[in-house]
Specification:
434 Repressor (Amino-terminal Domain), 8 strands, eight-stranded mixed beta sheet, single chain, Rossmann fold, 59% helix, 3 domains, alpha/beta, Four Helix Bundle (Hemerythrin (Met), subunit A)
Amino acid sequence: MFEILAERLEGVFKKLGGQGRITERSIEQALREVRLALLEADVNLDVVAQFIAGLKAKLKGQQLLRSLTPEQQILGMVGEELRAVLGGEARELDLKFRPPVRLLLVGLQGSGKTTTAAKLARWLKVERGRSPLLVSTDVRRPAAIEQLRVLAQAAGVAALDSRSDQDPVEIASRALARADAAGHDVVIFDTAGRLQIDRELMEEAQRLKAAASPNHILLVADAMTGQEAAGVGRGFNERLGLSGLILTKLESDARGGAALSMRLVTGVPILFAGVGEKLEALEVFHPDRLASRILGMGDVMTLVEKARQNYDSAAARQAQRKLRKDDFTVRDFADQLRALRKMGPIADLLAMVPGFKKIAPAADPAEAERELARIQAIIDSMTAQERANHLILNGRRRQRIAAGSGTSVQEVNRFVKQFEQTRKLMKKMAQAGPIARRFGLGV
């Protein structure tokens, strides 16, 4: 995520790291480098100008601290400006309206509106305890209605039966009546898109706005469209009056231009970020956390939240008890591994660890992902008896496991050795935990 921008900014800070103090010349040099980094990241030109102006005012107007290096001071100021451009603090989707709360999702074709509608419905159900109704008013795109129905079923939420021969306004009116009758407290309207903003698209969206009287109009935009996204945001906002943005494919965006442009251009907050294809891959957008990740400072809060969502605390306590009793098995290890992989791609998790790139710059997340897959295959090829007691793994058993998992005997041997080492280390940590806590070390 935002690799190009992060790498360019890291280069700026490295250059500053060799300087003893900040001078007028070093400030101008830093501003020039940051400007180039933003332009290379495909940030909107007006946004770049505003960003640099704000950063320049901070650099020249703030009393510089002798206790900090030039690198640390400019890093902090760039971080402040990034957070400001991205919106400052996370903004909640306001649901304090008379039910059903009506959400109208708009955007260009291919931005991911339909999938995002299902993701949002699932998020509202799981995170907010709501009973959403999904409604497709896209009568132009083949199979759009069926796609939303299938996604609704996967998300465990209701979807209105609509047909492509119906008028979108008629569908919207029927959806509101259905919501009242069935007790749905949120209605999410998925609308038609185009390859670009045109009169027909806007007229239909305006008709739906008049019919549904939405509490929120949310623009779904592809984060990978760069500068173009700013123009799209401005166009929809001028004609419809947006109340929020949802950026999709943020996990694949190496540049960051859309995220850094759209909030400032439209003046409305980024509420959610799509960070994957799965229905659960929708996150509340946190400007401060994203700014921290761009600057290579990690994102511990999101990492902790993912762990809480995907890890059973009772299972964790049980695993700790087993470790103390020297009873931690391959089966228990497999449970831990599944919980880790549910948290997301290993590359995303490593990016959230503060300073990871500096500690292990040559680490290959893709290879780490492949290694986890190999380990999972080896464990899956074991019998229940072998998972319960790895000490019975003789040569014949290891050959069978290698053949069943598509690996070599050497790889099976390496896994067994790694498991034993991990088991010993985890046992020491489990035993040290109560002692460390007694002395306030927080283990």
